[in-house]
C-alpha cells in the first residue's frame, strides 16, 4: 500500500524490534523515514540497516532522553526535509524487580526513556509538525508506543507500568491540546501486548537468571498460552496499526488508545 | 484503493444509510464481496448498483429471520469472513424519569439483542468456512459506552452492553480456538442522516449543529468514511493480533475534559 507517499516520518528506537518493523512498513507505504537510535552513524549495524532499507531511509543519532539532542534533531529534520508528518515515539526500555530493592536509578532511567522522552519529542517536533499537518488532509500524526502495561498492572514491573501509564495520558492531554488549538496534529497511543522482539527476549533472559526455576524459552511459551489468541505478536502486526494511525484513514482519530494484544486485556 | 479484502465476503447490518452504507462502499472498494441488510429497499437498490453488493431485507432483532438470512448468504457466497454489526437506533429514547418501557424494550431489542444475534450467527457461519474457521467481527458501539448521556438512557445502556458482548465473544473464540476476532468501534458524533434529521428537528438547528460540532475539540463531526476506514482496517488481516479491543474514534471527545 502507498498511503504515505510524500510524507516524512521519524521513528525513535528505530534500529530493532517494533521500531525497525515500523520503519520498514512506513517505507513500504511510500514515506521517507528517519531512523533515530543510540548508535553512532558510522556503526556497522547502522550502515547495514541503511544499506538494506535503501534510499528513502536515513539515520539520526538521538538519545531521546536528552533535550539538546531533540532540539538538534528537529532542526536537522527541518533543514533536510522541510516537513515532519509522522513521529513514532517508540524507544523504550524495561525495568523489573521488587520495589523495595529497586535502585532509584532504575526507576529514573525507565521514566526518562519511556516517559520524559515523549514530552521532549513532542515539545521539539510540534512546531514543524503543525506546519506540516495543516497542509495535509489527515493532519500530522504522533504515535506514542505505550503497552498493555500502561493499562493494567504487572507484578515487579512498577517503573515500566508507571512510565507506560504516563504515556497513555500524555497522549490524551496533547491530543486535546493540539485539536483544540487547531494545530493539525493527531496524537494516539498504541498498546502492544507481548511482541517477539529483542526487548522481550532480553527481559526473559534476565527473568530466567533471577528465577532459576524456568528458562527464558519456558517463560515465552507460557506467554503464548496466556494470550487468548494463543501466541505473542510479530513486530509487523504492531507496525500495521502504527501505519494505520499515520495514514489519512485515521483522520478522525486522536486521543485514542489502540490495544493490539491478542485479547490479553479483554480476559 | 488497495485490495486488502480480496476474496473475502462481508455482511453489514443496517447498510442502507450512514456508517453502514459507507462501510459497504469501503469494503467493496477493497475487494470484498458485500451483503447488507436493512429495510429501505430504494436506497439499497442504488447502493447495490453502485457497489455490486447484495441487499437482504432483514431486521436484526428478529431471531427467526436470522437462519433464513444466513442460508441465503451461504447459497450466494459460500463463506463469511467479515461481519459488521452496525444496525442501531435511538428513536423513542429518553431520560430515566421519563422513558417509556416499550421504547426501552425496542431499543434494547435492536441495539443489544440485534448485535448479539449478529455476532452469534456470523460466528456460526465463519466456523464453517471451507478452509476452516476464521473471520473478523466488528461491532458498532459508540463513545457513549464510555460517557453516558442523560437524555439517551437506553442508547447509552445498549452501547455499553455491546462492549461486553464483544469481550465475552472474543474470549469465547480464543478459548475454543476458532480464529475469529471480535472488536468494537466507538465513534463520536458522526454526521449521518440520523444526526442531520435530529439537528433539523430542533428549535434552533444552527445552534444544535454547533453544539454537536463542538463536542469534539477538533470542532467537527466525523465523516462516515472515516469510521469506515477503521472498520476496514479491523476487518483486514492487518489486524490479525487485535481481538476483544474497543477502538474509540471520536476526535478526542472522550479523551478528557477540555479544560476551562
Ligand atoms: N516487545 C514487547 O512485548 C512490547 C510490548 C509492549 C510495548 N512495547 C514497547 O514497544 C517499544 C519498542 O520495544 P521493542 O520491543 O521493539 O524493544 P527493543 O529493545 O527491541 O528496541 C528498542 C529500541 O529503542 C532504542 N532505545 C533505547 N533507549 C533509547 C534512547 N534513550 N534513545 C534512543 N533510542 C533508544 C534501542 O536502542 C532499541 O533499538 C518500547 O517502547 C516498548 O516498551 C514492547
Textual characterization of the structure:
The complex is a heterodimer of chains A (267) and B (260). By secondary structure, chain A is α/β, with parallel strands linked by helices. Chain A is built from 8 helices and 7 strands. Chain A has a 7-stranded parallel beta sheet, sandwiched between helices. In chain A, α2 links the parallel β2 (32-37) and β3. Chain A is globular, with a radius of gyration of 18 Å. The model of chain A has no long low-confidence stretch (mean pLDDT 96). Chain B is an alpha/beta fold. Chain B has 8 helices and 7 strands. Chain B has helices at 18-29, 41-51, 65-77, 101-127, 153-175, 193-201, 205-213, 224-235, and strands spanning 9-12, 33-38, 54-57, 82-85, 135-140, 180-187, 246-249. In chain B, α2 links the parallel β2 (33-38) and β3 (54-57). Chain B is globular, with a radius of gyration of 18 Å. The model of chain B has no long low-confidence stretch (mean pLDDT 96). The A-B interface holds A 1-2, 172-173, 175-176, 179-180, 182, 193, 228-230, 233-234, 237-238, 240-241, 244, 249-263, 265-267 and B 2, 4, 166-167, 170-171, 174-175, 177, 181, 188, 216-219, 222-223, 226-227, 229-230, 232-233, 238-256, 258-259. The structure holds nicotinamide-adenine-dinucleotide. Nicotinamide-adenine-dinucleotide (NAD) binds at residues 12-13, 15-19, 37-38, 62-65, 90-93, 113, 145, 147, 192, 194-195, 197-200 of chain A.
Amino acid at each position: 500500500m502507498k498511503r504515505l507517499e510524500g510524507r516524512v516520518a521519524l521513528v525513535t528506537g528505530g534500529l530493532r524490534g517494533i521500531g525497525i518493523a515500523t520503519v520498514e512498513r512506513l517505507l513500504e507505504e511510500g514515506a521517507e523515514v528517519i531512523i533515530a537510535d543510540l548508535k553512532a552513524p558510522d556503526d556497522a549495524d547502522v550502515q547495514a540497516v541503511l544499506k538494506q532499507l535503501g534510499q528513502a531511509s536515513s539515520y539520526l543519532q538521538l538519545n531521546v532522553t536528552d533535550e539538546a539532542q531533540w532540539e538538534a534533531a528537529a532542526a536537522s529534520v527541518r533543514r533536510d526535509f522541510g516537513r515532519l508528518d509522522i513521529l513514532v515515539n517508540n524507544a523504550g526500555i524495561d525495568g523489573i524487580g521488587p520495589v523495595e530493592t529497586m535502585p532509584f536509578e532504575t526507576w529514573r532511567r525507565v521514566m526518562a526513556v519511556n516517559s520524559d522522552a515523549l514530552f521532549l519529542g513532542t515539545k521539539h517536533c510540534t512546531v514543524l509538525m503543525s506546519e506540516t499537518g495543516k497542509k495535509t488532509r489527515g493532519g500530522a500524526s504522533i504515535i506514542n508506543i505505550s503497552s498493555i502495561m500502561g493499562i493494567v498492572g504487572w507484578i515487579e514491573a512498577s517503573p515500566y507500568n508507571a512510565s507506560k501509564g504516563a504515556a497513555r495520558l500524555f497522549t490524551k492531554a496533547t491530543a486535546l491540546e493540539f485539536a483544540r488549538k487547531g494545530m493539525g496534529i493527531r496524537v494516539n497511543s498504541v498498546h502492544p501486548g507481548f511482541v517477539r522482539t529483542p526487548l522481550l527476549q532480553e527481559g526473559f533472559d534476565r527473568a530466567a537468571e533471577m528465577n532459576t526455576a524456568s528458562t527464558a524459552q519456558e517463560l515465552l511459551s507460557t506467554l503464548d498460552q496466556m494470550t487468548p489468541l494463543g501466541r505473542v505478536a510479530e513486530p509487523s502486526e504492531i507496525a500495521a496499526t502504527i501505519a494505520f494511525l499515520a495514514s489519512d484513514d485515521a483522520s478522525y482519530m486522536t486521543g485514542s488508545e489502540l490495544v493490539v494484544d491478542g485479547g490479553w486485556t479483554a480476559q | 484503493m488497495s485490495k486488502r479484502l480480496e476474496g473475502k465476503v462481508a455482511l453489514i447490518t443496517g447498510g442502507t444509510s450512514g456508517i453502514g452504507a459507507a462501510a459497504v462502499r469501503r469494503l467493496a472498494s477493497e475487494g470484498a464481496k458485500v451483503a447488507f441488510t436493512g429495510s429501505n429497499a430504494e436506497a439499497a437498490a442504488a447502493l447495490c448498483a453502485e457497489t455490486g453488493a447484495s441487499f437482504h431485507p432483514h431486521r436484526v432483532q428478529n431471531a427467526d429471520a436470522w437462519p433464513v438470512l444466513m442460508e441465503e448468504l451461504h447459497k450466494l457466497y459460500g463463506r463469511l469472513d467479515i461481519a459488521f454489526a452496525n444496525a442501531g437506533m435511538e428513536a423513542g429514547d429518553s431520560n430515566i424519569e421519563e422513558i417509556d418501557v416499550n421504547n426501552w424494550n425496542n431499543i434494547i431489542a435492536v441495539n443489544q439483542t440485534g448485535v448479539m444475534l449478529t455476532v452469534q450467527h456470523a460466528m456460526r457461519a465463519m466456523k464453517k468456512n471451507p478452509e476452516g474457521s476464521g473471520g473478523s467481527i466488528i461491532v458498532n458501539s459508540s463513545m457513549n459506552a464510555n460517557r453516558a448521556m442523560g437524555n439517551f438512557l437506553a442508547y447509552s445502556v445498549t452501547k455499553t452492553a455491546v462492549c461486553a458482548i464483544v469481550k465475552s465473544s472474543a474470549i469465547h473464540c480464543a478459548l475454543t480456538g476458532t480464529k475469529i476476532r471480535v472488536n468494537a468501534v466507538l465513534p463520536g458524533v458522526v454526521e449521518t442522516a440520523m444526526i442531520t434529521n435530529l439537528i433539523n428537528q430542533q428549535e434552533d438547528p444552527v445552534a444544535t449543529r454547533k453544539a454537536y460540532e463542538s463536542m469534539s475539540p477538533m470542532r467537527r463531526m466525523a465523516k462516515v468514511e472515516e469510521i469506515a476506514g477503521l472498520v476496514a482496517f479491523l476487518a483486514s488481516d492487518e489486524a490479525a493480533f487485535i481481538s476483544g479491543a474497543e477502538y474509540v474514534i471520536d476526535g478526542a471527545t472522550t479523551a478528557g475534559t477540555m479544560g476551562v
